[in-house]
Structures are given as C-alpha cells and as structure tokens.
Amino acid sequence: MYYRKLNNASMWKKIQKLRDLIKLEHNFKERKCWNASCKKDLNIYDFLSDNVDFTPEYVLKLWQAPILEFHCCECFKNLKIDELQKIEQEIPTRICLNCNSLIDIYKFGKFHNYLKIHELRKLWLDSHFKVFCDNLCQRKYYKTYYDFLKKRKIKKQEKLKINL
Ligand SMILES: [Zn+2]
Ligand SMILES: [Zn+2]
User: What is the DSSP string of the chain?
Assistant: First the structure.
C-alpha cells in the first residue's frame, strides 16, 4: 500500500520536503501508538500519506505538538468504533428520507466518512439533518423535491398570468 502511495509524484515531493524539514528540527519526536497495549512505532511518512491534504509543514507541526496523541491505523479504527457505539446508545437508528429504510450509525459513518467523530455525532443527533442511505437516495430525494418546487413555481406563474 505504501508503495502505491509513493508512485504519486506530488506525494513524493511532499515526502522530500518533509525529510528536509525534519533535518532542521532539533527535537524530532519519536512517536509510539498512544494505546498502552499496542505501543507500535509510528512513522511520520505514513502519517503524511494518510493525510494527503496536509502540507509537510503542517504534518511536522502536528507531529511535534506535545498535546496531541497519535494512534496507529489499527488502534485508530477501533477507537472510532468505540466512539460510534457511544453515539449509537444515544440514537440507535434513523430513517432514510427517501426510501424509509432504517440506518444505523455505522452506515451513516461510512457514508460521511470524511467527517470527524464529533461532527458525525452532531449531525446524527440533529433531527433537522436529512439522513439518507447513500448518494443515490440523496439524489432521488432532492430530484423529487426540486421537481416539486419547479411545478409549484410554474403553477404560481400561471396564476399570475391569469390574474393579469
Ligand atoms: Zn496501536
Ligand atoms: Zn434510502
């Protein structure tokens, strides 16, 4: 997997930039997985390639930050599952606005996997937030909704014409 990521030219540039930045850093941190029962050595280049939107400068800044905890990929996944279970206890399921099928927080989390866990929780618990199974249901719902608005607009315009 790492090999595939290295094939990307812009990632390669970022890695070289990060390497240069680390050379200038006097107190470069050795990091281990924060989970006490794991303690696996962590690699800053893995961290960079897992967060492709971050600049090398930002990656190094986070890495060096004393208040941040880092987990290896495996422990991070488990951590997320623990957090999802907590959210599940608050509201176990919601209903897709388009097809009325039940959705659990794991499915919701997969659909919105770009969200951080606290953002995910906020949306899940927000009764006004529209919940869908997937992109398809979301698209179908909005298509029906916009068609409805369009029809209503046309009707209104027709009424206006009649009144004129
Ligand atoms: Zn770990
Ligand atoms: Zn649905």
Answer: -HHHHHT-HHHHHHHHHHHHHHHH-TTPPP-B-SSTTT--B--HHHHHHH-TTS-HHHHHHHHH-TT-----HHHHHHHHHHHHHHHHHH--EEE-TTT--EEEHHHHHHHTTTS-HHHHHHHHH-TTS---SSHHHHHHHHHHHHHHHHHHHHHHHHHHHHH-
Q: What pLDDT sits at residue 34?
A: 87
Q: Domain spans of the chain?
A: 2-64, 82-163
Mean pLDDT by 10 residues, the chain (164 residues): 58 94 95 91 90 87 88 83 92 96 91 82 94 91 89 87 75
For ligand 1, the distance from its centroid to the CA atom of residue 36, given in whole angstroms, is 8
Ligand nearest, relative to CA of residue 76: 1
Ligand 2 centroid to Cα of residue 88, in Å, is: 19
